[in-house]
Design a protein that fits this description.
Oligomer: heterodimer
Shape of chain B: globular
Number of strands of chain B: 9
Distance between the termini of chain A: 39 Å
Strand content of chain A: over 45%
Radius of gyration of chain A: 14 Å
Helix content of chain A: under 10%
Largest interface: A-B, 22 and 25 residues
Number of strands of chain A: 11
Largest sheet of chain B: 6 strands, mixed
Helix content of chain B: under 10%
Order of helices and strands of chain A: EEEEEEEEEEE
Number of helices of chain B: 0
Largest sheet of chain A: 7 strands, mixed
Strand content of chain B: over 45%
Order of helices and strands of chain B: EEEEEEEEE
Shape of chain A: globular
Structural class of chain B: mainly beta
Radius of gyration of chain B: 13 Å
């Protein structure tokens, strides 16, 4: 079964750090670009960033609100992607989803995790 | 930054056709995907590359994209189709992915 399972969410104070993990199974993880998408309570989906496959040099891109604060990485030997979040702000409070890009940028995100909740509050 | 605008809500009677629009500058020059999200659940991809349905998505879901507007059409809408729907495109100028503002479909 193709599956993504996020973990690592929790409560953190403003200015703090948190690292999310995304464990993949059931597909060739090393060949897939992995994305993070977040959703604040009652709000829409917001793309956070992505990491491409080794073939594409593990290149990363980030949305403007998180650039310079968040870092996406991956361990292909462990079939796991990570989202390191530093200098967290209250507006980063959201459910964070890990997703797989089905192919090229046109193919959409065809596998989603269940999400992990991040709450930034004092 | 690139924006995709959707109507906040669409209402449809069971068995009728629901039409959800997604507007963006020269959107027809980009590929659009659509996602369905039911309350408390993760999003599900229902259309990719403007018009293609992933395996397992019912034929009543179809898409189109031209000019500045992409459209998701649900023909013969069923109660189970009640959900939030989001369009999404890739902005090559920033290498960023963009989601639309979302549309809540209510089946009355």
């Amino acid at each position: 079964e193709v599956q993504l399972v996020e973990s690592g969410g929790g409560l953190v104070q403003p200015g703090g750090s948190l690292k999310l993990s995304c464990a993949a199974s059931g597909f060739t993880f090393s060949g897939s670009a992995m994305h993070w998408v977040r959703q604040a309570s009652g709000k829409g989906l917001e793309w956070v960033g992505r990491i491409r496959s080794k073939t594409n040099n593990h290149a990363t891109e980030y949305a403007a609100p998180v650039k310079g604060r968040f870092t996406i990485s991956r361990d292909d030997s462990e079939n796991t992607a990570f989202l390191q979040m530093n200098n967290l702000k209250t507006e980063d409070t959201a459910v964070y989803y890990c997703t797989r890009l089905a192919g090229s940028s046109d193919y959409g995100m065809d596998v989603w995790g269940q999400g992990t909740t991040v709450t930034v509050s004092s | 930054s690139y924006e995709l605008i959707q109507p906040p809500s669409v209402s449809v009677s069971p068995g009728q056709t629901a039409t959800i629009t997604c507007s963006g500058d020269n959107l027809g020059n980009k590929y659009v995907c659509w996602y369905q999200q039911k309350p408390g659940q993760s999003p599900v991809l229902v259309i990719y590359q403007d018009t293609n349905r992933p395996s397992g998505i019912p034929e009543r879901f179809s898409g189109s994209n031209s000019g500045n507007t992409a459209t998701l059409t649900i023909s013969g809408t069923q109660a189970m189709d009640e959900a939030d729907y989001y369009c999404q495109a890739w902005d090559s100028s920033t290498a960023n992915y963009v989601f639309g503002t979302g549309t809540k479909v209510t089946v009355l």
